[in-house]
Design a protein that fits this description.
This protein is 65% helix and 0% strand. With 158 residues, it is mainly alpha-helical. It has one domain. α1 packs antiparallel against α2.
């Protein structure tokens, strides 16, 4: 038996919009003029109805109206509204990505500062240990010299 074909939700821009972006777009579309209310209502609906009204990936070629075709002129504002909607989605996504980039850059700078401080502390600790080791060596050399000085008369001939 064959499995039924899987249907994935279709998104207008070709990529899923994150939650805050979707909320921001819904708020922006709520303030749109009445001519664009239909697109705002479509954006405010849940994901399931969007999949049902999914459009194909291709769009028919739009031909500019001739003077005799004055009745077809309203198609141009609809196209501009859809392009404006796409541009606003891209701009919103761009703003969100820039904000995320700033947050990541701040985190990166903070991590670099923490690492630099840890390296300084480690170098200081190693320097202290080396100083202590040198002090032990000096003390060892001093005791060796004292022991040799005390033992020297024992090995001399009289």
């Amino acid at each position: 038996m064959s499995e039924p074909a899987r249907q994935y939700p279709s998104h207008e821009s070709g990529r899923p919009a994150p939650g805050p972006l979707r909320d921001w777009l819904a708020a922006m579309k709520a303030h749109t003029p009445p001519a664009q209310e239909k697109s705002a209502e479509r954006a405010a609906r849940p994901e399931a109805p969007r999949a049902a009204e999914a459009q194909p990936n291709w769009a028919p070629r739009l031909v500019p109206p001739k003077p005799a075709q004055a009745e077809r002129a309203p198609a141009e504002p609809v196209r501009n509204a859809v392009e404006g909607e796409d541009i606003s989605e891209l701009m919103a996504e761009n703003l969100i990505l820039k904000a995320k980039l700033r947050v990541e850059a701040d985190r990166y700078a903070e991590l670099q500062a923490i690492l630099a401080q840890e390296i300084r502390d480690l170098r200081k600790h190693v320097q202290e240990e080396m100083s202590a080791l040198d002090a032990v060596r000096e003390e060892r050399d001093l005791w060796r010299a004292r022991a040799e000085a005390l033992a020297q008369p024992l090995f001399q001939k009289r």
